[in-house]
TrEMBL record:
Biological classification of the source: Bacteria, Pseudomonadati, Bacteroidota, Flavobacteriia, Flavobacteriales
Protein's pathway: Amino-acid biosynthesis; L-isoleucine biosynthesis; L-isoleucine from 2-oxobutanoate: step 4/4; Amino-acid biosynthesis; L-valine biosynthesis; L-valine from pyruvate: step 4/4; Amino-acid biosynthesis; L-leucine biosynthesis; L-leucine from 3-methyl-2-oxobutanoate: step 4/4
InterPro entries: Aminotrans_IV, Aminotransferase-like, B_amino_transII, BCAT-like_C, BCAT-like_N, BCAT_family
Cofactors: pyridoxal 5'-phosphate
Annotated family: Belongs to the class-IV pyridoxal-phosphate-dependent aminotransferase family.
Protein name as catalogued: branched-chain-amino-acid transaminase
């Protein structure tokens, strides 16, 4: 792989005491091109603009998929990735569904590891902080007829992050709009899934809600996800999460919480979750907690769930008593190398140079 290091590092301008997610990018980026049926020209180069033909299919028909993952430091500033294999497999599941080429494992993993190694200094040091990594695959050519592109570009960029969404969320059970539908692309990280959620999310924001609790597209009676997070309910001492299907993205955070919970003897259920049982749980007080989870926010608990114009508040538990925050700490401890890693999720990043 070609490596072109920057001569003008921006790291001195980065204020690690005041991390503004997505506003400062690390010095380098990784690019690899797919042309004539082959992957070629893998390179790490200074972060900067890219140029494609205006006919590129990414601009017209939305052939674009992405991933979200993080690199963490421990107290000795050793660097760790968390289950990167899962992101690798998932971006290729997304790619297949969007009729895009699969990324070879060595290109994904070498690009990722070398890039993060070069930009090590961009990984914040504190507990809960990390470097958010964004791999993405886009169609870079095409003609304006609606056919899949022949050329693609796989890239990785990264941005320092604190754990965001620190406040408890007020969410609304959606009864009109949908994020995904059976047979569709809801299980993929297709860029268009996000585009189509912005409008209903803004409408919800204007009514004072932080996020939407998505329901199934045909009946709006079954719960799917919350915003761009998977969702858990702690109902009658059981930890319940909607079973992954076509409509639900198989989140790595969600899967990790399930594994930890099962190992630690919690009662766990992966099954269809109806709106009516959640409303009943809210009315009877049997729903102790509800929370969303994903790489970006880790875990974010809900304070209010609204349905058909009625706001239902969740019990106002002390933070120490919250199962959501217990699992948040369990995950962060593993990610930051502060506890054992019973499942082998941590991948130490060797120093390559
Ligand atoms: C990325 C994403 C998640 C969370 O997945 P993680 O692997 O835990 O980060 C959940 N739902 C949607 C719709 C997503 O795009």
């Amino acid at each position: 792989m070609k490596i072109e290091k920057t001569l003008h590092s921006r790291i001195k301008k980065m204020d690690f005491n005041n991390i503004d997610f997505g506003n400062q990018y690390s010095d380098h980026m990784f690019c690899s091109e797919f042309k004539n049926g082959k992957w070629k020209n893998s390179i790490i180069k200074p972060f900067g603009n890219i140029m494609f033909s205006p006919t590129s299919l990414v601009f017209h028909y939305g052939q674009a998929v992405f991933e979200g993952m993080k690199a963490y430091k421990d107290q000795n500033e050793e660097v760790f990735l968390f289950r990167p294999e899962e992101n690798f497999k998932r971006i290729n599941r997304s790619a297949v569904r969007l009729e895009m080429p699969s990324i070879p494992e060595n290109i994904f993993m070498n690009g990722l590891k070398q890039l993060i190694n070069i930009d090590r200094d961009w990984i914040p040091k504190n507990y809960g902080q990390s470097l958010y990594i964004r791999p993405f695959l886009i169609a870079t050519n095409g003609v304006l007829s609606a056919n899949p592109s022949k050329d693609y570009m796989f890239m990785i960029i990264s941005t320092p992050t604190d754990t965001y969404y620190k406040y408890p969320l007020k969410i609304k059970i959606e009864e009109k709009y949908s994020r995904s539908a059976p047979g569709g692309v809801g299980f993929t990280k297709a860029a268009g899934n996000y585009a189509s959620s912005f409008y209903p999310t803004r409408l919800a924001n204007e009514k004072g809600f932080d996020q939407i609790l998505w329901t199934d597209s045909s009946t709006h009676t079954m719960i799917e996800e919350s915003g761009t997070m998977n969702v858990f309910f702690y109902l009658k001492n059981k930890l319940i999460t909607p079973k992954f299907n076509d409509n639900i993205l198989s989140g790595i955070t969600c899967k990790s919480i399930l594994s930890l919970a099962e190992k630690e003897g919690f009662f766990v259920e992966r099954r269809n979750v109806s709106v009516s049982e959640i409303i009943e749980g809210l009315q009877t007080g049997k729903l102790k907690e509800a929370f969303g989870c994903g790489t970006a926010a880790v875990i974010n608990y809900f304070k209010t769930i609204s349905y058909k114009g009625n706001d239902f508040d969740l019990p106002n538990l002390a933070e120490k008593k919250r199962i959501s925050l217990y699992f948040k700490k369990r995950l962060l401890d593993i990610q930051h190398n502060r506890s054992e890693d019973p499942f082998g999720w941590r991948v130490p990043l060797k120093r390559y140079f």
